[in-house]
Amino acid sequence: MIRLFVFPPVLRGTPNPGPFCIKLETALRLAGVAYETSYERLAAKGPKHKIPFVEIDGERIGDSTLILERLRDEQGVDLDASLSPRERAQSHALQRMIEERLYFVMVHSRWLEPENWAKLKTAFFSKMPLPLRLIVPRLAQKRVRNSIVTQGLGRHTREEIYALGAADLAAVSTVLGDKAFLFGDRPTMADATAFAFLISIIGPDFESPLRTSALGHANLVSYTERMGEVFARAARTHLRRAA
Fold first, then answer.
1. Is the pLDDT of residue 240 over 70?
2. Whose CA, among 4, 47, 52, 199, lies 20 to 30 Å from 60?
3. How far apart are CA 128 and CA 25, in angstroms?
4. Which CATH number goes with the domain that contains 40?
């Protein structure tokens, strides 16, 4: 049995505050992989000091992509089995765009927009005892700001950051077109990834130019709702199997 470690679900409008947690859990549900969920707040407990991570036969494995590659190699879990080599390459490129740039735009919108930061701080840190409740949020925000600068996105102006995010969303919208899912009539790994980030942008009450851009693409909004239904149905199936 796989034990899945994810953040506690502390944000309304999204299954989890961490998009990579949503991505991994969506993939496991779509693939019909049996797992148990454990909530974890301390990323330091993960083997790569990141959440999500999994425990398989006593071994802890980190990073959502590496976890899924391990499951593919050892258990044949492959949501992309129906894709052609070209489609696999396109899926790979699309996922890297979402995870390596759009993600950081989303992080900027949550952690560095004053009104959104106030909401996020309450959700993440309000239950901490004093004086940690005063100290930890400032340190965490500083660490996030530094990580965005190191990645490169944080060196741009606010307008430039959101323009880059809007371009990424437009690209996803164009790839999707009028299809049910990104590569046809059944969800693949790209859909697990895109859904995780779109619901993270659209779902919570974090207003920003990024959310406005996402809501401006009708096909992305309906797609996120459709994937949400798929995610919920897969959850019910997972619970029946566990019972």
1. no
2. 199
3. 27
4. 1.20.1050.130
Total residues belonging to the chain: 243
Residues 6+ apart with CB under 8 A from 223: 176, 181, 194, 195, 198
DSSP state of 27: H
pLDDT tens for residues 213-228? Answer: 999 999 999 999 999 9
Q: How far is Cα 155 from Cα 161, in angstroms, rounded to an integer?
A: 9
Q: How many structural domains does the chain have?
A: 1
**Which tokens belong to 180?**
């049910």
Inter-axis angle of helices 103-111 and 114-125, nearest 10: 90
The residue among 71, 73, 92 whose CA lies nearest residue 83 is 92
> 189 near 79, Cβ under 8 Å?
yes
16, amino acid identity: N
- For 146-162, write each residue's pLDDT tens digit: 999 999 999 999 999 99
**Token pair 């052609």 is at which residue?**
84
Question: Bridge partners of 144?
Answer: none
Q: For residue 173, give its domain range.
A: 2-242
